[in-house]
Backbone:
């Protein structure tokens, strides 16, 4: 037993040695940058970092700023609705394609194509499509519904939902493909047994398929959550944070404070709050997902 462990340790030794500089560089950049950001969030840094300690003043100012509070509210609305609708729409589309319909490859390619576009391109496309004078609203009125009025990007109360539409259009195709791959990985005998027992297809999906696809759902949620950071691109392309500050998001607040407002201390404080939020979500999930398996 003891002779096997050294052999495993020295297996692919050249590859392991070659990867050391990259790993060290990544750790220094990531952990060093994180610590540096947290430390300077307690300073009064403006255009350049400076060691003038102000304690929690930057955090107090942050949570008393209406723009930051609106950005947090928008991110919560976008994040929750994005997760719910992406999972539901992606699963339903995958279930429809799982019926082995004709031209399945064509439909799958069409649905996946928006994911190949950047968020900036997606934002610009939907800025045009939702424009009341050029896009979908004008087409609907031209078809006879002259009273139709839908301009989410120009209405402060619903602007975040206009951004959500663009995000769903781009990301739902990938979620559909992940769900479809999970469904195709389920043993065909399960479907045969459900048909023999007379179980309707929708019950099979809900009570049998979904529980068996737990790893797929976890992977999907992680992908959706990672995409929440990139909502910055959609906001900049579609609304620029407007009307007013109605569509602000935390990432845009950080960028504006650090590069436009020349207030590094405030930007560092906002970045640290985003980091803490991610840690609060990921650490318990990682503990439950991997710690429980290790104990088992």
Residues:
């Amino acid at each position: 037993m003891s002779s096997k462990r050294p052999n495993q340790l020295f297996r692919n030794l050249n590859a392991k040695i070659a990867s050391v500089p990259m790993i060290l560089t990544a750790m220094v950049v990531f952990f060093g940058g994180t610590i540096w950001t947290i430390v300077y969030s307690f300073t009064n840094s403006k255009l350049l970092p400076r060691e003038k300690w102000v304690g929690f003043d930057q955090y107090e100012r942050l949570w008393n700023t209406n723009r930051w509070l609106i950005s947090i509210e928008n991110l919560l609305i976008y994040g929750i609705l994005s997760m719910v609708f992406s999972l539901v729409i992606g699963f339903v589309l995958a279930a429809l394609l799982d019926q082995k319909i004709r031209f399945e490859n064509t439909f799958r390619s069409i649905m996946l194509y928006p994911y190949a576009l950047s968020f900036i391109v997606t934002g610009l496309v939907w800025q045009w499509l939702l424009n009341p004078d050029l896009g979908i609203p004008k087409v609907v009125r031209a078809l006879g519904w002259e009273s139709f009025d839908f301009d989410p990007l120009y209405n402060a109360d619903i602007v975040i939902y206009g951004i959500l539409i663009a995000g769903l259009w781009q990301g739902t195709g990938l979620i559909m493909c992940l769900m479809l791959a999970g469904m195709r990985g389920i043993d065909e005998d399960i479907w045969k047994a459900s048909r023999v027992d007379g179980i309707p297809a929708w019950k099979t999906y809900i009570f049998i398929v979904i529980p068996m696809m737990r790893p797929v759902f976890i992977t999907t949620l992680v992908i959706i959550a990672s995409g929440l950071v990139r909502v910055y691109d959609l906001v900049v392309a579609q609304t620029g944070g407007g009307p007013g500050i109605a569509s602000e998001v935390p990432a845009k607040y950080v960028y504006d404070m650090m590069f436009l407002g020349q207030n590094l201390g405030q930007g560092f404080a906002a970045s640290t709050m985003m980091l803490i939020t991610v840690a609060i979500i990921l650490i318990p999930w990682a503990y439950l997902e991997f710690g429980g398996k290790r104990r088992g």
